[in-house]
Design brief:
The complex is a heterotrimer of chains A (299), B (322) and C (335). Chain A has helices at 3-12, 14-36, 67-103, 105-120, 123-133, 138-148, 151-165, 168-175, 180-219, 227-236, 245-280, 288-291, 294-297. Chain A is built from 13 helices and no strands. By secondary structure, chain B is an all-alpha fold. The longest helix of chain B has 39 residues, at 178-216. In chain C, 27% of the residues lie in helices and 21% in strands. Chain C has 9 helices and 12 strands. In chain C, the strands form 2 sheets. Chain C has an 8-stranded mixed β-sheet with strand order 6-7-8-3-9-10-12-11, with helices on both faces. In chain C, strands 2-1-4-5 form a 4-stranded antiparallel β-sheet, covered by helices on one side. In chain C, strand 4 (58-66) and strand 5 form a beta hairpin. In chain C, helix 4 (127-140) crosses helix 5 (157-169). Chain C starts with a strand and ends in a 22-residue tail after the last strand. Classes of the chains: A mainly alpha (299), B mainly alpha (322), C alpha/beta (335). Chains in contact: A-B, B-C. At the A-B interface, helix 4, helix 5, helix 9, helix 10 and helix 11 of A face helix 1, helix 6, helix 7, helix 11 and helix 12 of B.
Amino acid sequence: MTWIGAFRLIVTSWRGRFGLTVLGLAVFVSIFGTLIAPYDPEASSLAVLQPPSFDHLLGTTENGADVFSQLLVGARVSVLVGFAAAFISAVLGSMVGLASGYYGGWTDRILDALENWFLVIPTLPLMIVLARLLDPSLTVLIAVIGLTSWAGTGRIVRAQVLTLRERAFVERARALGAGDLYIIRKHILPNTLPLIFANTVLIIAVAILSEAALSFLGLGDPTRISWGTMLESAFNSGAPSAGAWWYVIPPGLAITMLVLSVSLLGFLFEEFINPRLQKESREVVVPEEAVTPLTQRQS
Amino acid sequence: MSGRWLTGKVAAAILTLVFVILFNFFLFRVMGDPTTQLARLPRATPEEITKLQAAYGLDKPLVGQFTDYVGDTLRGDLGTSQRSRRPVWDEIVDAMPWTLLLVGTGTIIATLLGSWMGVIAATRRGQKTDDGLLGFSLFTYASPEYWIGIILILVFAVWLPILPSGLQVTPGVEFSSFFAEALDVAEHLILPATAMTLMLLGQYFLIMRSSMVDVLTEDFITVKRATGQRWDRVVRRHAVPNALLPLVTLSAIQFGAVVGGAITIETIFSWPGLGELTFQAINDKDFPVLQGTFLVFSFAVIVANLLADVLYFYLDPRVKAT
Amino acid sequence: MKNLLEVEDLRVEYRGRPIVDGVGFSLARGESLGLAGESGCGKTTTALALMKLLPDGLSQQGSIELRPEGAEEPIRIGKRTEVGMQVVRWRHISLVFQGAMNSLDPVKKVEFQIDEVICLHEKGVSGKQVKERIADLLTTVGLTPKLGSRYPHQLSGGQRQRVMIALALACRPSVVIADEPTTALDVVMQAQVLELLERLRRDLGLALILISHDLGVLAETCDRIAVMYAGRIVETGSVDSVFSNPQHPYTKRLLASLPVIGGERGLAPAIPGGPPDPGNPPEGCSFHPRCPYSTERCLEDPALREVAPGHQAACHFSPWSSWPKVEPLKVGEGL
């Protein structure tokens, strides 16, 4: 599993190209949105709920603000929360999965039970309860989503670690006196990272949808505009009944496109990784301990 | 033996539920003394606060409070809604049938339609039909269900005003018979159920399709064809039943998403179910209600998973042997 | 009297590459024909082609004519459509698939699956009659009828193999093709299955096409044998004639690799090299790159021709009265 191989995989399939393009666009807009936006997204005006025109490419909101500018600026929250929450979820899930799979015994039993609980419990209600407890903000959103989405990664990592633990090269390393942390770092982790990566990409998609849903329900950061809050405002101000399609369609479409692009990339990685992992996870990293005798290393 | 397996599964389910109650309890404690929130009366005297504390059992040790909490929950006492002052349980009981109606309709249609689409896509794998269905399913899978709901409202309630845009009945109308009222409800059910169906369709489709594709590569399918059976019969009689098995367990795992969708879709359509209740509770910061619906949602998902396990057990003759 | 089955110039292609390259043979009523050859030579593909069961992507051509008992017109399988084949398959010709592990529907009982097949081809059979026939079939293949009410996973491998044979006989076809019926079975089971097939052939007057890479198995059970190499038949004749007097270098080498009880000890000489790539077949005789006797003449396609009564071979230098001693070829040698 090489970076070049992965890159080539993406570029040669239309799914990969689509995913990369849309994702790239989203990241670009999330960074430069505030610079590109023609209007201040929060600037209100008297042109309330106006359909698209030359002045306002996507019309105006119930406050007379420019929808297009809001769309551009709102990208930042979705992308940021998506990536950050998925990252937290990946780190948490990996740690739990590693500890659980590697150490076994009671550690495994407790962590596995915890993992199963998080897997069974419906996530949105859980996120709602947690988010409502605290004052809504970006940090809260990222934390809540990250802390509730890790179980899927955890389970995958645990399964992988369990199979790796019994493999010959791990036993060899142990026989040569390698410690647990060394084995985890040098042997288990490299063979598990591709799996974690592929899974995390899909978690990004889930995180983006979660942020949108929470924002839509009123638990988003009130100081920020996101695609979810745009839908929230649109709905609360009666935009659908007013037929203001220019306000209602773009944010949802943006969310859909972003989620789609990330998902397609995620599926691609998964396909790539799965058959490979069976074949290649023999010795991705050359076991140094087999090459340098113990006595030398201790100096 | 099946008895032991079943007991094991039920025990696990109960344990999971207990942890939900535990979680709720700690949440209750974390958010602080509810008496200070409830007693937001101006100039509440210390004696009154102490009296309230005693009434809520907050002067007891932690363990005692927990056992009280569990006992209350099992008896159906989930606290009182801060907004309506009614017992949370009553609010839930009122809302539940509506959610069941919405979720039930959506799930049934999505399962049937999604499976049927999955079979078609698998038998026409690689062709345009397959690509089209895949594309459609991916789109609905990636899109927020409430956004789909809004679009449905836009199209069918605003632009072509043929369906109502919300609520479960037309307000202010007296119905001549139960049947007439049921019809009105049905009319109001169409859009929300469509949103729910579209949300779930993609999942069921993808699962069924992949399951069918796997089954169609099996040897016994070629054998059935070799025996002179018509291909459509081979698919229907031998491929589909084998492909349905994983669908049962996999769809149970998706039940959590169903719950999430119920919340947002009911919000859009002001459908008076548990989801709408949750939404209002969010706005009102009505914690007893939020915890109550969380408990009920968790319970539903746990039970759904259990039922799926049991169902799979009875459907797959191979599992019975273990 | 014409033969039961006549195959002429059967060709199967995959993306322009020939997998079966002009195969022809005939099968008389009640006769058993062995189809021998190494993996990949096209034996299974030929079997599938006889029933028009080739997977998508493979195209077949050629004449396949079946004349079951009492039929006025021959069944021209080569010309039949998928729908037309549905009445021919199993009723007149059936196939025991290689590897019976997963050949039955896992969620249906055995008796249901046999019942299904019988009712498919015979309308108006009463439920009682079908039950009797199923019990009969199972007994014939050496299983207790009780096993019919079980699910496939509840049967052992050997039992499943027998069920497949019972299934193949269910509609009383005139031809049964058995594709590697003994592979993946232990020696004891092998003997039992072969004995079963032979007994069935005698008792029911079946014609049998037995496909195997194991020459020993074919020698025991078959009347005639056809040796395939790279999609073509390179030698065919009665088992006695071919085994005692092989007329093609490939057959000779195959036979030499069979250990003989009481014969010399030591490793049997392997045939150097491997089967040719169908996308890039050798010029002329497809075996010549691996043949120790090849000369320039072999660049010309040798046709299958009669070299002894009832015995045909596709070699320019046959009939071989004796085989000159040659140094075993090193890998890569040959023309």
